[in-house]
Amino acid sequence: MSDISYVGQRGTRAGASAFVDVPSPAGFPDSPASRVLAQPLMLGLFLPIQAGGWSASTLPRTTDWSFDYNADLVLKAEALGFDLVFALSQWLPKGGYGGVFNGQALDSFMTLAALTARTQRIILVATSHVLYGPWHPLHFAKFTATLDHISRGRWGINVVTGHRAVEHEMFGWHRIEHDRRYEMAAEFLDAVQQLWAQTDNFTFEPELSSWRLNGAFVTPKPKYGRPLLINATGSDAGIDFASRYSDVVFITSPAGTDIDSALDALPVHAARVKAAAAARGRRIRTLLNPLVVCRDTSAEARAYRDAIVAHADEGSFHRFDSDAHAWRGGNEQRSQAAARAVGGNVSIVGSPEEVADYIVRLHKAGIDGVQLSFYDFKPDLDFFGERVLPLLREAGLRS
Fold first, then answer.
1. Cβ-Cβ contacts under 8 Å for 279 (sequence gap 6 or more)
2. What is the pLDDT of residue 149?
3. Where are the alpha helices (DSSP H) in the chain?
């Protein structure tokens, strides 16, 4: 399949520059992206650069949003041989979502940019809301190409369009309709990719967006065509966007956070995403975010999970658009709240052998990579590296 990025050319007008093909970093055998994508199972870490990490619980833990804490995690993940680290991006009013999610958070782009000079091998993937006020395609292309240059091809972008009304409103907008956001993001990314690839000045007028390019040019050029591109989606419009632009798509389980239900639902969902890219002559990989609770024995792991849930932070459950139920509800509401207390797209709880087996089964279900999160990040990452990672190597999922 092709290693050329699809270019939609939406908005090209008379007088605009001709579009050129944009090579994917996967097309360069010596690129960091090629090394990562060649792994039987990609292994990543989802950093807790926001207060509360991924878990709405007050059970004591070391997890912290500070730069130093997260830098230590990145260096440990790199030493363990992890391929990727991600960080989220969020724009929240005072108080955040409440409770442990109090709104304290580093910026994803700036945090990972700072780590390009402190790491050697791992790919750093910054989440970027490409439609919000700060970004013009010329800024974005220049900044990301610079970081790609500094990192020697280890820069990645998780392209998001934003879905919470409060985020749009903070920038003085009304929330943009879902599918239109993807159309606008396509215009943005078309322009950015051309700035990475064009060998001459580039002019472009979009149909939907207010920015313009007139004789624009960017140096340095990315080392391997362009940075690694990722987006997170499950919608038709998002999957179509991924099929045109992304190397990796971040998916969630259609069946919720229960791992056994997820294993039943994921094969069809993952196949659908990959088929959309294949129809365009492209190959795309799928990535899932499990939160891992692992201890020496299954009983110990489940007891720790129960303790996390027993300390569920009621104050964190009332301000999510998608989670507006009360903590004190019926069985279904309490189950949803418990899942929020633990965190992750799915939760994997068990002994090292059980956790490794679940990850093997996720791979067989069509998942090409796992972007791990933990409740207590530092000790849990150490334990995973010592006890689970060797089992994944034995299973042939890690080289």
1. 243
2. 96
3. 32-37, 67-80, 108-115, 137-151, 165-170, 178-197, 236-245, 259-278, 298-310, 331-342, 352-364, 377-383, 389-394
Q: What is the pLDDT of residue 334?
A: 63
Q: Do 22 and 347 form a contact (C-beta atoms < 8 A)? A: no
Q: Which domains does the chain have, with CATH numbers?
A: 4-285 (3.20.20.30)
**Alpha-carbon distances, residue 251 vs 63, 303, 366, 369 (angstroms):** 25, 29, 11, 10
Which of 69-83, 99-113, 170-184 has the weakest average pLDDT?
170-184
CA 367 to chain centre: 14
pTM for the whole thing? 0.92
Mean pLDDT of the residues in the chain: 91
Q: pLDDT, tens digit, for every residue of 118-160?
A: 999 999 999 999 987 668 999 999 999 999 999 999 999 999 9
CB 43 within 8 A of CB 21: no
Q: pLDDT tens digits for 264-305?
A: 999 999 999 999 999 999 999 999 999 999 999 999 999 999
Phi, psi of 365 (to 5 degrees): -80, 0
Q: Which residues pair with 160 in a beta bridge?
A: 129
Upstream peptide bond of 48 is cis (omega within 30 degrees of 0): no
- Please state, in angstroms and rounded to a whole number, the distance separating the CA atoms of residues 374 and 366: 23
* Cβ–Cβ under 8 Å, residues 94 and 103: yes
* 8 Å CB contact between 40 and 397: yes
| 257 HSE (CA, 13 A, CB side) | 19
Rounded CA gap, 9 and 18, in Å?
A: 9
What single string gives the DSSP state of each residue in 141-205?
HHHHHHHHHHHTS-EEEEEE----HHHHHHTT-PPPPHHHHHHHHHHHHHHHHHHHH-SS-EEE-
